[in-house]
Design brief:
With about 200 residues, the chain is α/β, with parallel strands linked by helices. It has helices at about 15-20, 30-40, 50-65, 65-80, 80-85, 90-100, 105-115, 125-135, 150-165, 180-185; strands at about 10-15, 45-50, 120, 170-175, 190-195. Helices cover about 55% and strands about 10% of the residues. Residues about 1-5 have low confidence and may be disordered.
């Protein structure tokens, strides 16, 4: 099967790839993610996602430096109100607007908007996941923290079931996680990239 990049019809991005670019869906520090979603849309590439990935993204947004920088800004403004008043820079309406702005919600809303037309996969049969767990099949391994791989295992199994029903699609998986690549070994219509850029 010819799996040239021109034939990619779907993309699945592991949350680790979004974390690597600071989950900057709004393009505050970099236009990389907005450009990525724009290019996928222009090329009519279907995005795949899963409820587990959505929940992981929300957690990663909370851990991003964008969110932490905003929290620091709000804290610093609160500490400096007296100085700002003395310098006649105490714009109450502006401070209130900054305090009320929810950058976490705005970032997640942008993420969800980008995935509004995505294929949202369902949950696979848990029996298949536990079979892989007890057999130490990827993404589980005989050594290491096997239990922490359950979220990935559910996503990967969902994707495999979807691909079985769509054998003519070519999926690009963007992930730095070697266990993801091992999990898809032997799946002909899957390509890998370790970053969005």
């Amino acid at each position: 099967m010819d799996k040239s990049p021109e034939r990619i019809t779907m993309v699945l991005v592991d949350t680790s790839a979004f974390t690597e670019v600071n989950s900057d869906f709004i393009g505050l520090h970099s236009a990389l993610l907005p450009s990525f979603f724009s290019a996928a849309s222009e090329k009519e590439i279907v995005l795949l996602t899963h409820p587990i990935l959505d929940k992981e993204i929300l957690k990663h947004i909370e851990d991003s430096s964008i969110y932490k920088e905003y929290q620091k800004l709000v804290t610093q403004l609160a500490k400096c109100k007296d100085v700002l008043t003395l310098a006649e820079c105490n714009d109450i309406a502006l401070f209130k607007k900054i305090e009320e702005f929810d950058i976490k919600a705005k970032t997640f809303e942008t993420f969800m908007h980008n995935y509004s037309g995505a294929v949202r996969l369902g949950y696979p049969d848990p029996e298949a996941i536990f079979e892989k767990y007890f057999s130490a099949e990827p993404p589980f391994s005989a050594s290491g923290k096997k239990k922490s791989e359950f979220p990935d295992a559910f996503v990967i199994e969902s994707v495999k079931r979807y691909l079985e029903c769509h054998p003519n699609e070519v999926l690009m998986v963007v992930s730095k996680d070697g266990d993801w690549e091992k999990s898809f070994s032997g799946t002909d219509n899957v390509l890998f990239s370790n970053s969005i850029s």
